[in-house]
Structures are given as structure tokens and as C-alpha cells.
């Protein structure tokens, strides 16, 4: 999301030839190294970014629009050149499959998503899919057959910009949403997801979610400043923060700014300010805590009237579920102690995710093996990997991205 | 302002016969007491309230509307029955004059305003004008001639609801605004004040502001809770608070609620919350201080985005100009210390007003003499008396008013 990101480095995933069943050795036992072509990957990313290109230098390739179809068509064209088979499930999730030598192996699936926000950046989900494509190309260049099949996936409607909620294709695949919920997702203008999926020709017949996944890898740009600030090339994503969303309402009493003494007020704004400061402090007192109050409104919103009502939102995050729960308790306790008190209602909870330890280790070792400086990182944002993690050993890697 | 106030008591102003030049003895030397007829005053207030009556039980008699004309017409009818002469100045300020016996005396002027907010209460300014009318009636009942003439005034457009700013008729009279500013005041729909004044037939030929005023008295309902809370019948208004209005803007940096660590944020909302809490504390730390943040907006106003910009207002009040200035300095210093800092811009300053000591004492003594419990009070809201205080010895008295 955002506009016109520029990756600071191009992570070159090593592929190693091995027959071992061990996931670690599968990725980095290092018998023969095939390096990806960074220049080709960079060029491909920019070629893809022409589809839905915006004047601001980003892309608008919102899910299931004509631009999304064009992006999918381009991807299909590229993988077809590599003699991959293309598989589309009922949610429109798109898999390019390159067969392996061992019929007993489930595929290693690599990818992310091709859709974007209405004012999206060039790289975001596209980076993960194009890295997958580059890996297919490298294998093809060398005529190398892997033991396990390789599949490159683009999940449908990751952004949720047009059809909320976000991560819908991977969410149905991972069991978070039913197929009915996925297909029935409705845009602001009443359009139904399945109708648009059919219209652009990407309503597949494969069941969504029954597809075997041996391991899932999602390369992505980091949407935060940590890697860039520390000049680290690769972020080893160990998991995703838990998120709690709240709607907060504070009911005081409207009164005259001039004639009402301070000790006779029930000022919703004063309570709101104390709450916001405390919510901020509760996150700051924890190295991995995050809290945000992004929306606030007051009634009657008059310069010389004490606010009768203030409504605000809280976005609370922590990688550890118990710590997130303690943050919740501290906020609720403080909110109740205010005068007027704040009514804090949780409207969404996304538990923290820990990625598969073997996959995380394999990515870290592969980065080290390739000579990149890496740092473990917990993702602050949701990704398709969160839902796929429920059905297969999953991992992510981040690359730094200017102003990402 | 507000709707459907019910006065808790009806202050009965004593009028005493005296030939002294001393303002104190003029009001309370107590040779002969003529009591006002509380029942008649109550009835008159409700009769007036039928003009522009609203379903909510209040009145809508916005300045220079047909309802305002009807209210003025009723007042003129009542004072004409008492053989008063009616004088209208170029701002439409309306004076009912009852001559005195001493041609060297300037009149004692009593009154307030007949216009209301769109959802006004029955009493507000009407109370002051109807008290003046009742005094004329009592004098007439007893066939008593005062030494000084008595004039009952209704100032034009006190509320400023249709033609901002507020207190426009008294403001021109007192020299705050030029006649051109007053006549040229423009409504939201482009209507000019002087056109409406002419349309309703109340554009007078008397110069506005040259009229002699010996003393000015403004009875008014208290718009705050102090008298009601202390069960006091009369508030002796010693002055009006100074008011400073500010527009505050805080520019931080928009960032992702999940991926941006707390120590790498420039969160406009966090600064705003600290500022609001401090502004509240600065007023609370002073017995007579008041501060209000009634309006706040954030950008981009997204639940999971750190606010890039927050704009808010501050209304700051204190009866003492120097103390108000110190409050200003504390706010500005704190605002500059924030990260991101808050830019605090004063957009209006109304200095504190101290009413004439002799008039204040006269009102206090008169209340005591009449057996009413009184308390000194500083008005938190503006009144016509603020501007008339500049050109004549002025005082106000408040009566408590339920939910006022």
C-alpha cells in the first residue's frame, strides 16, 4: 500500500538441489546454487507495474477489475511460456505449477497477490508473485527439476479494498471464511465478488482449500521502516502481531464553555484525551507493543461548547496474545476510571501468528548462506501467509522498501 | 440560549425615590419602596414567548426576522400604553423613554435583547427587557416620577445567530464596531443586515452611540449552574471573563498502525491528547480559569493509520487579563515542547470586563435590602453590557435558571 515504493535491495533466493526430506536441507544444503537474475526480476516488476499504472507512479489494480484481469493474464502468459500448468480455484486463486520428480511430494508454494489498493505501490504483493516467477525462470534456465513440485500463487482480493474483508482468497483457502462468505463478498456499490470473478474469467472449478501445500513461502516488501533504518537486507518474519480493534464512546454533558466551572463539567473531550495518552503509554511501555487512535469525532463540535460525546477508535497490537490481553485489561480499567467513563468495545480480534519454525530457520539460513545481513522481524500487517499458516508450514521474508 | 428555561426565582427590583446625585442612594436609600408585580412579569414573559414559540417549548425569534419584528411590535405596544416615547437608532436599537423630573439627568437605561437563537429559550435576553417594562409599569401604577429619565432598551442582534458577530447593536453603540460594519453584517445566505432592518421597519434615524446613558443595568438569567447549585436568588455580576480563541494545528507523519514502531512515529493524535489534557489542567489549576476543546478532527481519519494531522480549537477564559495571558503562555510553551509540536494561533481576544463598582454595589445593596440572598459572580458569557460598559457606568444582575 502507499505509492511508488522503491525496494532498496533485491533479495535473491537461492535454490539448492537436494533429495532430502528435511526442509532445512531442502532449501540450503547447497550442493549447487542457482542465482536468480536480479535485473530480470526488476524489469519484470516494472513491466507488470505498467498494468494499472497511475500518474503518481504507483498502480491501481483493484481486485477483479479489468486491470486485475490484465495483471492475471500477463502472469498466465509468463508462466505458460515456462510450460507450467495453470490452476484456478473457485475463489479465483491462481496457481502456476511446475512438476517435480517425486510424485509423493506436496508442492512448495511461493507467492502473494497481484491486486492492489486504489492508490497502491508497484511492489507490495506483486513482489512475492514475481519472485516466484523468477524462481520458475531460473529452474527453467538451468533445465533443473526439483524433487517437489513448485507452485507460484496469486491469492484473490488480498487488499479487500473493493470487497472487504482483506485476505479473502487465502482466508477461504485457510478456513477463516466459508466459500459462501468469500464468493458473496459485496462491494460498496452492491457488486458481488463471484459476479466480477466470473466476468473477468477467473472463476475456477477447483475446490478452494483442498489443494495440497507442502510448504508456503511469501516474499513481501516490509511496509514499515525497521529494515531500512537498520540497513538490513532481509527480514526473517517470525510471525504476525495480534490485533484488537475497538470502538470507544464517551458520553459526557454538553455545557457552555464560559459559564460552566471546570469542576462542574462532564467533559467527554477531557476523558478522551486522557484515554488516548494512556493508550499510547501502554504500547510504549512494551518493546513490541503498538497502539493507534486514528479516528476521533466530537459532538456538538462547537468551539465554545464542552463536548457532550466523543467517539474514537483504538488499534492495539502485540506479537504475544497474553501481553495483548494485558494491554486490553489496562485500557479497559483506565477507561472505567475516567469521569465521564469511556465505553470500550472490541469489534475485531486477530490472534498473533507464529510461522513454522523450520521454514523460518530455512529462510534465515538461506539468507546467511547467500551473504545477506538478516534480522528477525514480526510483521505488523496482515498477509495471506497468516491464513495459509493454518493449513501448511509457512514462512515470510521481507525486503526493505524506501518509505515502505 | 438552550431551550425552555424556567427561572427559579423572579428577582423583584426595588425602586426607591431619591433626589441624591449619588448612584448608591439613588437605588437603595429606601425612602419609599415600590415592589414589582412578579405575577405580572411572569405572565408578560410568557405572553412574549408566544411570539416565535417553538414546539420544544422555547422560542425562535432570530434577529430581523418577522418574529423579531412581531416581538418588537409587542414591546412598542406595551410601552406606548405607558406613554413612553419610542426611539430607534440606525442599528435598530430600540429605546422606550419615560421622562424624569430633572432635565439635567442622563437616563438610567435598563434592558437586554429580544432576539433569540434559532432554538432559544423563553427567558434569555427577553428577561432583561421585560424587567425594564415591569419597572415602567410599577412607576406608572404609582404615578411616580423619577428624577432621572428611565429608558428600557432592546439591543439589535445580540445573538449573532443570523448576522455574526454577536452583540452587534450594543457593539456599534459602544464603539467596538463601526456603523458600516454593523449595517453591513451579512447572513450565510448573503442577506445584509441593513436590508432586513429596513424590511421589518426598524431602521431608525437616530445616530447609534451618541445617546446619553447615565447608567446601564442589564438583568439576565444566569446561563451557568452556579446560582442554581448554591440556591442563591441573585447573582451580582462584577464583570465578564476575558476570552481567547485559538485554532490549533498539529502536523505529524501518516504511518501504518501495524508496521510503524512507537518510537518511530510522529503521531499528531498523541500530541493532541497531551495538549488537551494540559489545557484542561491549566484551567483547573486556577479557581476562575476555564478551558474547552470542543472541536477536533484528524486526517486521514483511518482506524489503522497514525494520524498525520490533527486540528482542534481552544476556548480559554479568565476574569483577569494577566492571568489569562499567563495561561496563554503556558499553553504555547507546552505546545512547542510536543513532538510533533502544536501550532497555536489565537484568532480572537475579548479582554476581561470589570463593571462599574458603584453600580455593582448598588445592585448588591438593593438585593440585600430586598431580602434576597446574593453572590458575586463573574459572567462566563458575553452580553450587551460588555460593550455598553465602555461608554457608561454599567452593571448586570443574574437570576438562576433551571438547566440554564
Description:
The structure is a homodimer of 404-residue chains. The first copy, chain A, has 404 residues and is of the alpha+beta class. Chain A has two domains: 6-240 and 352-402, 3-Layer(aba) Sandwich (Aminopeptidase), CATH 3.40.630; 244-350, Alpha-Beta Plaits (2-Layer Sandwich), CATH 3.30.70. Chain A contains twelve helices and 20 strands. Chain A has helices at residues 23-28, 38-49, 66-81, 124-141, 168-174, 179-184, 193-199, 226-230, 268-284, 321-337, 357-369, 384-388; strands at 6-7, 15-16, 33-34, 85-88, 94-98, 108-112, 150-154, 215-221, 234-240, 242-251, 255-256, 290-292, 296-299, 305-306, 309-318, 342-350, 353-354, 374-379, 394-399, 401-402. In chain A, strands 4, 5, 6, 7, 8, 9, 17, 18 and 19 form a nine-stranded mixed beta sheet that branches. In chain A, strands 10, 12, 13, 15 and 16 form a five-stranded antiparallel beta sheet that branches. Chain A is elongated and about 85 Å long. Chain A starts with 5 loop residues before the first strand and ends with a strand. The model of chain A is unreliable at 1-31 (pLDDT under 50). At the A-B interface, helix 9, strand 12, strand 13, strand 14 and strand 15 of A face helix 9, strand 12, strand 13, strand 14 and strand 15 of B.
Amino acid at each position: 500500500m502507499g505509492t511508488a515504493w522503491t525496494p532498496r535491495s533485491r533479495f535473491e533466493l537461492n535454490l539448492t538441489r537436494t533429495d532430502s526430506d528435511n526442509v532445512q536441507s531442502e532449501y540450503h544444503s547447497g550442493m549447487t546454487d542457482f542465482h536468480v537474475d536480479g535485473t530480470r526480476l526488476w524489469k519484470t516488476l516494472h513491466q507488470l507495474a505498467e498494468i494499472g499504472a497511475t500518474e503518481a507512479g504507483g498502480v491501481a489494480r483493484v481486485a477483479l477489475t479489468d486491470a486485475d484481469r490484465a495483471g492475471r493474464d500477463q502472469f498466465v502468459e509468463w508462466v505458460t511460456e515456462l510450460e507450467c500448468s495453470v490452476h484456478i480455484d473457485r475463489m479465483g486463486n491462481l496457481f502456476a505449477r511446475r512438476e517435480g520428480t517425486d510424485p509423493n511430494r506436496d508442492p512448495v508454494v511461493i507467492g502473494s497477490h497481484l491486486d492492489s489498493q486504489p492508490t497502491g505501490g508497484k511492489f507490495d504483493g506483486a513482489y512475492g508473485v514475481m519472485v516466484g516467477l523468477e524462481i520458475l525462470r531460473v529452474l527453467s534456465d538451468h533445465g533443473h527439476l526439483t524433487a517437489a513440485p513448485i507452485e507460484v500463487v496469486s491469492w484473490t482480493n488480498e487488499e479487500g479494498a473493493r470487497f472487504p474483508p482483506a485476505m479473502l482468497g487465502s482466508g477461504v483457502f485457510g478456513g477463516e471464511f466459508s466459500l459462501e462468505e468469500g464468493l458473496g463478498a459485496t462491494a460498496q456499490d452492491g457488486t458481488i465478488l463471484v459476479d466480477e470473478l466470473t466476468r473477468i474469467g477467473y472463476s475456477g472449478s477447483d475446490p478452494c482449500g483442498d489443494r495440497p501445500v507442502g510448504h508456503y513461502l511469501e516474499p513481501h516488501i516490509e511496509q514499515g521502516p525497521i529494515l531500512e533504518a537498520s540497513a538490513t537486507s532481509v527480514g526473517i518474519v517470525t510471525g504476525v502481531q495480534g490485533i484488537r480493534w475497538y470502538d470507544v464512546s464517551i458520553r459526557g454533558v454538553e455545557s457552555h464553555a464560559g459559564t460552566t466551572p471546570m469542576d462542574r463539567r462532564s467533559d467527554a473531550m477531557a476523558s478522551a484525551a486522557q484515554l488516548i495518552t494512556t493508550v499510547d503509554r501502554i504500547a510504549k511501555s512494551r518493546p513490541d507493543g503498538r497502539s493507534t487512535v486514528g479516528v476521533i469525532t466530537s459532538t456538538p463540535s462547537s468551539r465554545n461548547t464542552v463536548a457532550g460525546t466523543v467517539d474514537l477508535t483504538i488499534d492495539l497490537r502485540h506479537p504475544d496474545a497474553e501481553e495483548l490481553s494485558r494491554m486490553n485489561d489496562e485500557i479497559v480499567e483506565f477507561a472505567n476510571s475516567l469521569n465521564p467513563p469511556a465505553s470500550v468495545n472490541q469489534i475485531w480480534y486477530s490472534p498473533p501468528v507464529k510461522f513454522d519454525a523450520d521454514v523460518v530457520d530455512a529462510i534465515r539460513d538461506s539468507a546467511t548462506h547467500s551473504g545477506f545481513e538478516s534480522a528477525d522481524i514480526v510483521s505488523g500487517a496482515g498477509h495471506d501467509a497468516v491464513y495459509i499458516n493454518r493449513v501448511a508450514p509457512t514462512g515470510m521474508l521481507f525486503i526493505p522498501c524506501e518509505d515502505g
